[in-house]
Design goal:
The chain is of the alpha/beta class and 269 residues long. It has one domain: Aldolase class I (TIM Barrel), CATH 3.20.20.70. It contains eight helices and 13 strands. The strands form three sheets. The chain has an eight-stranded parallel beta barrel with strand order 1-2-3-4-5-6-9-12, surrounded by six helices. A hairpin with a 5-residue loop joins strand 7 and strand 8. InterPro entries: Aldolase_TIM, DAHP1/KDSA, KDO8P_synthase. This is 3-deoxy-8-phosphooctulonate synthase. Pfam families: DAHP_synth_1.
């Protein structure tokens, strides 16, 4: 699969989708992107900047949803142009597909919406890479149908991202048996940070277990995921979305250094 502007594709590393949960402003996006670009260039990791231009699936009506669609999309374009890297953002409505496709390289279908045929087809028909997040309620085997929707729409550029499976009402687990299954259908990414969410909290704000990030990420690399998805922020406690399960930006380099070493060992087998 070819992703525009992506670098270090000959390094035999996993690729990385990484950035803040939501675009909160231009300065924060550029600051995070600059740091991650520096780390991934050093470690020769193919890198895609991630940022949501809007958040439509919030727990409460007073939760942060964005700074304005066009404003956030223009920031994503500026990140891409400034650092010569590809970008990914999620879409929630059919009308979002063509709009976001003008600004980013990968369109992401949120897990709750991955069964929405019209949305998946609209994303596919833009010709962009489509990242299909596995529903928390879906089996790995069921993702072949989501991939088929993309391909039947004339687009061979599909990714699958596992973001955990519901375990009761307020916890998530990662079933690593699903990784080889989904890799039969499309390149597969492990969403490390969302897999550690603790949803449905009584206060209406999702919790998380960020102290488990390296544990989950290591297991993904050992089990041959093609890519990793990590949300990061220089001030997770004050991030406007998903701060409870994000990785602090200061901890990213040590984590990725360890993961690259594991990948190199796995490649030697």
């Amino acid at each position: 699969m070819t992703i525009p502007k992506i670098k270090h594709t000959d390094s035999n590393n996993f690729f990385l989708l990484c950035g803040p949960c939501a675009i909160e402003g231009e300065d924060m996006a550029l600051r995070i992107a600059e740091k991650v670009v520096s780390i991934t260039n050093k470690l020769k990791i193919p890198y895609v900047f991630k940022g949501s231009f809007k958040k439509a699936n919030r727990s409460r009506i007073d939760s942060f949803t964005g700074i304005g669609d066009e404003k956030a999309l223009r920031i994503l374009r500026k990140v891409s142009e400034t650092f010569d890297i590809p970008t990914v953002t999620d879409i929630h409505e059919v009308s979002d597909a063509a709009k976001a496709a003008e600004y980013v390289d990968i369109l992401q279908i949120p897990a709750f919406l991955v069964r929405q045929t019209d949305l998946v087809v609209a994303a596919a028909k833009t010709g962009k890479v489509v990242n299909l997040k596995k529903g928390q309620f879906m089996s790995p085997e069921a993702m072949k149908h989501a991939v088929k929707k993309v391909k039947d729409s004339g687009n061979e550029l599909a990714l699958i991202t596992d973001r955990g499976t519901m375990f009761g009402y307020q916890d998530m687990v990662v079933d690593f048996r699903g990784i080889p299954t989904m890799r039969q259908f499309a390149p597969t990414v492990l969403d490390v940070t969302h897999s550690l969410q603790q949803p449905n909290q009584s206060v209406g704000v999702t919790g998380g277990r960020p102290e488990m990030i390296e544990t989950i990420a290591r297991a993904g690399v050992v089990n041959n995921v093609d890519g990793l998805f990590i949300e990061t922020h220089y001030d997770p406690a004050n991030a406007k979305s998903d701060g409870a399960n994000m990785l602090h930006l200061e901890n990213l380099e040590s984590l990725l250094t360890n993961l690259v070493a594991i990948r190199q060992l796995i490649n030697s087998f």
